[in-house]
Amino acid sequence: MDPKGQRVKLNDGHFIPVLGFGTFAPREVPKSEAVEVTKFAIEAGFRHIDSAYTYQNEEQVGQAIRSKIADGTVKREDIFYTSKVWSTFLRPDLVRPALEKSLKDLQLDYVDLYIIHQPVALMPGETLFPTDENGKPMFDSVDLCRTWEALEKCKDAGLTKSIGVSNFNHKQLEKILNKPGLKYKPVCNQVECHPYLNQSKLLEFCKSHDIVLVAYGALGAQRTLQWVNPNYPILLEDPVLCAIAKKHKQTPALIALRYQIQRGVVVLAKSYNKKRIRENIQVMISGAVGRGLLSSILHKGHSLSSSQTILE
């Protein structure tokens, strides 16, 4: 970590801010809101912005970034922007055109980080989630090592500073790491990670290979009926997390974010609520919680209410 304690050095020499602003929003949220909340996040102090082609909001996020550059709030080099190559573009010949499409939407010359969104290839086309006549997903057969080589070429071309992956398990990471002729290692693996799913074994593996683990869903999994049983416990209402927050005179959200930072994880805080955006940035500005937090969580972790809890 750099002297300011707000960035982590990647294995290719670049630096990534340890706290990022996630821009994903459910379909019902108007895309135009991404402009205002991203501008607000930058004004509040966020310098790491995470988006993706499949979020379908890069045009709006790019507009916000360019607006804050134009008014002098930041310079382009102050912003660390992450985009992702979607599953319908994992054929090697489609990777660069996909990145170029994102850059065109963003109206930026480069992204700071370009990652494979998930290790599952879908049939190419305009549809994000192609299905057959029976409604079943239409998968594609792609060698992810060839996809990775296409990302390496994007880095060499200066279209992205760094390259990485998302939602990979350790075996899928090993496939890339052991690829003959590997030119660049993945700098990161972005996965769902929070106190109910702490990814401790994957984190250990990533650290052993100098790969940064980036946590999404850090404040709890996206609670859409498509993905999460509404009867599952809500992370930020967990009694242990709330007790620790009360002890340190902080919010449960800040405890959850600080927990990740103290274990060496880069953490994304997603919110379209300005009050919460302002609150989340405090984890870096005020050093919200002391060094005793992590051991406190680890000591009490076994009593977290979810049956999914794996605090080790």
From TrEMBL:
Residues annotated for substrate binding in this entry:
117
Top-level taxon of the source organism:
Eukaryota
**Coiled-coil boundaries:** none
List the active-site residues: 55 (proton donor)
Q: Which residues form the NADP-dependent oxidoreductase domain?
A: 19-284
> What's in the keyword line of the UniProt record?
NADP, Oxidoreductase
SUPFAM superfamilies from the UniProt entry: NAD(P)-linked oxidoreductase
From the Swiss-Prot or TrEMBL record, give the protein name.
NADP-dependent oxidoreductase domain-containing protein
Q: Which PANTHER family match?
A: ALDO/KETO REDUCTASE (PTHR11732)
Protein's organism: Bos indicus x Bos taurus (Hybrid cattle)
Entry's PROSITE patterns? ALDOKETO_REDUCTASE_1 (PS00798), ALDOKETO_REDUCTASE_2 (PS00062), ALDOKETO_REDUCTASE_3 (PS00063)
Query: Which residues are annotated as site, described as Lowers pKa of active site Tyr?
Result: 84
What terms describe the molecular function in GO for this protein? oxidoreductase activity
Q: Which Pfam families match?
A: Aldo_ket_red
The protein's matches in InterPro entries, at most eight in alphabetical order, are given as: AKR, AKR1C, Aldo/ket_reductase_CS, NAD(P)_OxRdtase_dom_sf, NADP_OxRdtase_dom
Family, as annotated: Belongs to the aldo/keto reductase family.
